Amino acid sequence: MSAAGNAGRPPLRPHQLNTLARDLLEGSFPSIWVEGELSGVARPASGHLYFTLKDERAQVRCAMFKMKAQYLRFQPRDGMQVLVRAKLTLYEPRGDYQLVLEHMEEAGEGALRRAFEALKAKLEAEGLFAAGRRRPLPRFVRRLGILTSPSGAVIRDIQSVLSRRWPTLEVELLPVPVQGATAAPAIIQTLRAAYAAQRHDVLLLARGGGSLEDLWCFNDEALVRAIAESPVPVVSAVGHEVDFTLADFVADLRAPTPSAAAELLVPDRTEMQARVEHLQSRLQRRLAQALDRARQRADHAGLRLQAERPQRRLDRGRDRAESLRLRLAAAWSTRLASKRDTLERLSKRLAPQAPALRLQRLRQRLALLGARQDTALRRGLQARLGLLRELGRGLHAVSPLATLGRGYAILQREDGHAVRRAGEVQAGDTLRARLAEGGLRLRVESHDGERE
User: Fold this and answer.
1) Residue 242's closest CA among 79, 437, 70, 369?
2) CB of 47 closer than 8 Å to CB of 111
3) I need a surface site. Which of 109, 190, 235, 326 has the fewest CB within 10 A?
4) For residues 313-338, average pLDDT
């Protein structure tokens, strides 16, 4: 095309073209998954990772920057099949078409990861991972059953830690395969045999680190359910700290590593010995203090007992009784002497007042008073008899009986009331007439009326 044919449209500069191409690629492919073989893997001092991802027909340049590369769980090397999640872009300075990686895992692991998440969601919905169903571990484990490979370094690491921290622990190795298709059924069979034996306080399921595919037997659904059914607490120590399996979620305790599990299961002998010595020291101090207090109480009680012993109390009682006897004798003598003096004084005062003399004087006075009383009584009686006669004569003069003696009578009704007027009676009434001597019963025939 000639320059004239491009009239009115300025030509693009290379950097402008690359910018347009980059924007087009990033807009069309925001994030994609690509699987291929690693080639030309390079990791310079910057920490970034550069390589080519290829298959049998093509290849594409790739870059994984340090912020993402540091989280890789494996060491990338040439010839390794990987699955990556990346953004498609273009490196403008050189015009290189490339992938900038966000995540990378070994090929085949992606499908396992999706299966892992699906099974985890299913079992979690059933409540197998609930914290409330986990069994507490005993404070001190006496017999530990370890399910792991008998030939790996894991059992040696665990036994080394256990023998150093708590050598008295009884450890029983329950050998099982920990990788491959036969591992899960073998572990299930061994677990159920251990449940039936009822010999162990805790069961430890252990394995060293590895890829998701290496650890896949511990994601077996039947194994997870067998662990959930365990009557014995189960500890899972599978892989490294960043490795997680479904056995970890269903176990009663998950340890980041097998060695860490050994440290979690048993106390440190040195620390425990120091604690025991500290407690023993405290106990000895408490016992010494208690013994001192008991000794002081015993001393006080001994002194009190010595002061209150029967012989001493008897001696004190005898001394007190003798003192009281002497005081009583002295008091009695003093009082007796006082009474004797009083008696002598009273006798001297009583001599002139002898009862015989007083009695003679009283008889004489009584005879005199009796004569005077007789004379006074006779005189008083005569005077009262004269007065009585005068009063009798005056009373007889005004007595109704005297009037009756002159021929009059007193009329009384049946109820005893005296009849004063003729109007107080009716014809046919019965009256009683009282005379000077005797009385009469009268019946009223008629009356002349009542005078005013």
Assistant:
1) 70
2) no
3) 326
4) 86
At residue 7, the pLDDT reads 55
- Is a pLDDT exceeding 80 seen at residue 128? yes
User: Looking at residue 163, what DSSP letter applies?
Assistant: H
Strand, helix or coil for residue 101: strand
CA distances from 349 to 328, 335, 343, 346, 441 (A): 31, 21, 10, 5, 84
Beta-strand relationship, 96-106 and 170-175: unpaired
Stated as kind and residue range, the H or E segment containing 42 is: strand 32-42
Parallel/antiparallel/unpaired status of strands 202-207 and 430-434: unpaired
At 1 the pLDDT is 47
pTM: 0.47
- What is the pLDDT at residue 110? 64
Helix (H) or strand (E) holding 63: strand 59-64
Euclidean distance between CA atoms 152 and 157, whole angstroms: 9
First-last CA distance in the chain? 186
pLDDT at residue 452, as a whole number: 38
| Element holding 27 (H helix, E strand) | helix 14-28
pLDDT digit string, tens, across residues 419-431: 888 778 888 888 8
Mean pLDDT, the chain, whole residue set = 86
Asked whether the beta carbons of 83 and 110 are under 8 A apart, the reply is yes
How many percent of the chain have pLDDT more than 90? 35
| Closest C-alpha to 50, from 67, 37, 63 | 63
Shortest CA distance to 274 belongs to which of 282, 265, 286? Answer: 282
202 is written with which tokens?
């805790």
Residue 424 gets which letter from DSSP? G
Residue (of 50, 53, 45) closest to 65 by Cα position: 50
Q: Which of 235, 42, 43, 44 is nearest to 134 (CA)?
A: 235
pLDDT, tens digit, 9 for 90 and up, residues 373-388: 888 888 888 888 888 8
423 token code pair? 């109007």
Closest CA to 192 of 246, 139, 145, 135: 145
Q: Any alpha helices (H) in 267-423, and if so which ranges?
A: 269-307, 310-350, 355-398, 400-405
Cα–Cα distances in angstroms (integers) from residue 173 to residues 157, 190, 210, 377, in the given order: 13, 11, 22, 145
Could you tell me the CA-to-CA distances from 330 to 316, 318, 327, 333, 371 in Å, in that order? 21, 18, 5, 5, 59
What pLDDT score does 21 carry? 74
